[in-house]
Inverse folding.
């Protein structure tokens, strides 16, 4: 990582990416925190409904999605390491792997939704499924945006030659890790506990 | 492979392991409240690893690191308290 060297210390602390993306990340985290807390509170008010709802879900699908997202984040983090080392081909390959793992997430999620819709569950079934589809759907839409960002990062991987370009790349990477962080909370809340 | 990349792989492995622990813990832990607490502790540890290692905030200005770490601490705490009521 290119680090600024101050006259006081060998390494100056630096926030990766653009400042704007961090405010965006904080805003998104706040919205999802409200969703998560709302889900937990509603579950306590409707324990049987939520128990029945969770039994209709597919925890293994959630587990596969967790592994795919964590693995995708690994490759995004690796791509950034390679970019800082100016190894552009490896940067690109890591981004492709990250994108393919995201495609796995999308495929599993679409399968999951298809099965639930086929069983007659939808947004209007009851409060549990309203929250389930809202929260996971909201996360899913953010993930699709993240995949578009990954495509842009792949296109730019060989062309970045300014600090601004690197900062933009870091911003995209941090956005992707935010999605991972949100899923880390969402998965146990909805599928496990 | 550089130390930084090895660190990323180790972090990935720990994240996967923690995921499996919390996923299968209900087989061993019959006390629901304790199981919820364990799941939320795992959420905090995983969140901290993502913040510090994947997002590379361990070397970022402290206030930003603290804000993100606060999130992965406070949200699980609130959820745990709700489930303990």
């Amino acid at each position: 990582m290119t680090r600024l060297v101050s006259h006081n210390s060998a390494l100056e602390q630096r926030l990766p990416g653009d400042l704007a993306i961090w405010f965006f990340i904080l805003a998104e985290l706040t919205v999802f925190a409200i969703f998560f807390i709302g889900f937990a509170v509603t579950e306590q008010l409707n324990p049987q409904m939520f128990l029945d709802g969770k039994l209709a879900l597919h925890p293994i699908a959630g587990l596969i999605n967790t592994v795919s997202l964590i693995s995708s984040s690994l490759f995004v983090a690796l791509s950034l390491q390679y970019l800082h080392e100016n190894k552009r081909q490896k940067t690109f390959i890591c981004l492709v792997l990250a994108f393919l793992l995201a495609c796995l997430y999308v495929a599993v999620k679409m399968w999951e939704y298809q099965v639930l819709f086929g069983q007659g569950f939808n947004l209007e079934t009851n409060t549990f499924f309203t929250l389930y589809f809202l929260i996971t759907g909201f996360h899913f839409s953010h993930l699709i945006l993240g995949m578009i960002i990954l495509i842009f990062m792949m296109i730019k991987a060989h062309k970045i030659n300014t600090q601004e370009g690197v900062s933009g790349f870091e911003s995209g990477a941090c956005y992707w890790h935010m999605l991972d962080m949100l899923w880390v909370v969402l998965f146990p809340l909805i599928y496990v506990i | 492979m550089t130390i930084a990349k090895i660190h990323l792989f180790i972090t990935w492995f720990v994240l996967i392991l923690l995921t499996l622990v919390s996923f299968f813990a209900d087989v061993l832990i019959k006390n629901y409240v304790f199981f919820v607490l364990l799941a939320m502790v795992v959420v905090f540890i995983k969140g901290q690893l993502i913040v510090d290692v994947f997002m590379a905030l361990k070397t970022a200005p402290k206030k930003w690191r603290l804000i993100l770490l606060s999130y992965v601490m406070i949200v699980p705490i609130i959820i745990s308290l709700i489930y303990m009521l």
Residues 117 and 123 of chain A are 10 Å apart (CA to CA). Residues 53-192 of chain A form a domain with the Four Helix Bundle (Hemerythrin (Met), subunit A) fold (CATH 1.20.120.80). Chain A touches chain B at residues 1, 11, 13-16, 22, 26, 29, 33, 36-37, 40-41, 43-44, 59, 63, 66-67, 70-71, 73-74, 76-78, 80-81, 85, 174, 177, 180-181, 184-185, 187-189, 192-193 (CB under 8 Å).
